[in-house]
Design a protein that fits this description.
With 384 residues, this protein is of the alpha+beta class. 23% of the residues lie in helices and 27% in strands.
Length: 384
């Protein structure tokens, strides 16, 4: 009898210990669920999916194009830029180089920058190394001349930032930093930052990005109008910018927490400074803004000779002043398309010239001639 009672006690203890060591259920709002929600929340620069299209690319990624390149002729940006140059003022050359991109350029890239006033701070390339053979698989035509824009530094004052803060409902003291004016709200986690070099406006309201309750979000059409009206009311919407698409801005689990409305200029731009977006949360509330108001068509311009197709392809193969990405194992690339775009440096950088670049795309093969998964993207300056 004593042995039976002892066995029962041991069994109960084993069951109790086993139950204590098992994982707790992920109940909403419990500490165990916090990490899973956080893991589902993308960084602000990484929208997770598209409401309007399955092709979202990497909207706020500095390296990828906003949309797939499908043309086999120069982009309409060439003609737009030339048309703008007719009424703009020509400017003399200068030799000031710009600040670097988020990734540090190579030493050779820096040497090239000192030799040319038209410098582009491309990030480090990604993919196969050493470089590979590049061939053209389409009838591509590049222009003989291109337009270079000269940046005009905006006049940003504390009074201007205070006015923006008033429109956004942010109360607090405007503080001058090394690269921007800062204004943080006294009562909420909302903040405003305006960059001195470009006039870029960055408004952040983290609490609104991932609300505790399921948000009521507008339709794509409604979100486009809300974002456009908001920029107009702030007085920063450039004439030649319009909504390009509406994306899912973030999720908490399966719940969409906010939308991202992306804007794009008539003239295609690339680089860290080319991001223009408004994030919309519950009941149409603006919860985040990142908008560079530079309007290329209003800047002074200079028309210069462009690189030929042969020179551009050669530079893609062996120049250090370019960017490319390709799947590992790439031995050969067949170029299928190219567009002309303009490179905008990070918004905190003083950029003297806005330089045109060619963006090439193509398909990749390994050394045995097998087609690889993933396309080639290569950026090269369109001018020497």
């Amino acid at each position: 009898m004593k042995n039976l009672i002892f066995s029962l006690i041991v069994s109960i203890l084993i069951i109790t210990i086993s139950g204590c060591s098992s994982s707790p259920e992920n109940v909403s709002g419990s500490p165990a669920n916090i990490s899973s929600i956080a893991a589902d929340q993308p960084a602000l620069s990484e929208p997770v999916s598209s409401l309007a299209s399955t092709d979202i690319g990497a909207q706020d990624d500095d390296l990828d194009l906003e949309e797939p390149i499908i043309s086999t002729a120069p982009d309409a940006a060439i003609e737009s830029a030339k048309a703008a140059s007719i009424t703009a003022t020509s400017q003399p050359d200068s030799s000031q180089s710009t600040a670097s991109e988020n990734s540090t350029p190579t030493e050779a890239n820096n040497k090239a920058a000192s030799a040319s006033p038209y410098h582009v701070s491309f990030p480090e390339s990604q993919g196969s190394s050493p470089r590979f053979k590049i061939e053209v698989n389409a009838d591509l035509t590049l222009p003989e001349t291109v337009v270079i824009y000269q940046m005009v530094k905006p006049d940003i004052t504390a009074e201007y930032v205070k006015e923006l803060g008033d429109k956004l409902g942010i109360s607090g003291e405007v503080k001058l930093g090394t690269e921007s004016y800062l204004l943080s709200d006294d009562k909420t986690d909302a903040s405003l930052e305006v960059y001195l070099a470009t006039g870029t406006v960055a408004y952040r309201y983290p609490s609104g990005l991932y609300p505790k309750e399921t948000p009521t979000l507008p339709s794509d059409e409604e979100a486009s109008k809300i974002a456009t009206d908001f920029l107009s009311e702030l007085g920063i919407l450039s004439e030649n910018y319009a909504v390009s698409r509406v994306l899912v801005g973030g999720r908490s689990g399966e719940t969409v927490t906010h939308l991202l409305v992306s804007f794009r200029s008539d003239i295609r731009t690339l680089g860290a400074g080319s991001k223009h977006s408004v994030r919309i949360g519950n009941n149409g509330e603006i919860v985040d803004l990142f908008y560079n108001p530079v309007d290329l068509q209003k800047l002074p311009v200079k028309e210069v000779s462009a690189k030929t197709l042969e020179q551009s392809l050669q530079d893609l193969e062996d120049s250090d002043e370019c960017y490319y990405q390709a799947p590992d194992g790439t031995a050969k690339v067949n170029i299928e398309s190219v567009i002309l775009a303009y490179w905008l440096e990070p918004v905190y950088s003083e950029q003297e010239y806005i330089v045109p670049v060619y963006a090439f795309t193509g398909i990749c093969y390994d050394a045995d001639g097998n087609l690889l998964k993933g396309n080639y993207v290569g950026y090269i300056k369109a001018v020497d």
